[in-house]
Amino acid sequence: MPIPPLSRRSLLQGAAVAGVAAVAGFVVARAARSEVTRPGTAANAYGPIAAHRDRQLARLDQVPSRGGLVVGNDSIVLTRGAGEDVHGFSAICTHQGCPVSSVAAGAIVCPCHGSRFDATSGAVIAGPATRPLPAVPVVVRDGVVYTTT
């Protein structure tokens, strides 16, 4: 059975449906991307990360000087300079959502694909990740590291 020729009307209707679908997809994606996170959460490429206000994460002496500690239950990685200067970041890699595994030589390391992030800023040092680790505000009080969000 031969295929009937495509009419001008069919072509224009198909193009209109495709255009409407493209605009609707763009609007939905844009709205989802601009969703504002609630206070008390940090976010990464894979959604909000629960962070509880003034929740104890670790004792300061558990976070190695010039190193770091992954707090698995909270999906947070803590890094520390020479003194009591502690930084908190999401422990979920922005590449494909793998949990980071360690902090070594000034870098937070993701074991899945080798992404490395700066231990003081969360910025990407080596990919394949292209986005930094989201910061998680922390504070040190009486030798204990707490979240502040």
From TrEMBL:
Alphabetical keyword list: 2Fe-2S, Disulfide bond, Iron, Iron-sulfur, Metal-binding
One Pfam family it belongs to: Rieske
Cellular component GO terms, alphabetical: membrane
Species of provenance: Pedococcus badiiscoriae
Name of protein: Cytochrome bc1 complex Rieske iron-sulfur subunit
Job of this protein: Iron-sulfur subunit of the cytochrome bc1 complex, an essential component of the respiratory electron transport chain required for ATP synthesis. The bc1 complex catalyzes the oxidation of menaquinol and the reduction of cytochrome c in the respiratory chain. The bc1 complex operates through a Q-cycle mechanism that couples electron transfer to generation of the proton gradient that drives ATP synthesis.
All copies of domain Rieske, residue ranges: 55-147
Cofactor(s) listed: [2Fe-2S] cluster
Keyword Iron-sulfur: yes
Gene Ontology terms for molecular function: 2 iron, 2 sulfur cluster binding; metal ion binding; monooxygenase activity; oxidoreductase activity, acting on paired donors, with incorporation or reduction of molecular oxygen
Superkingdom per UniProt: Bacteria
TM annotation in the entry: none
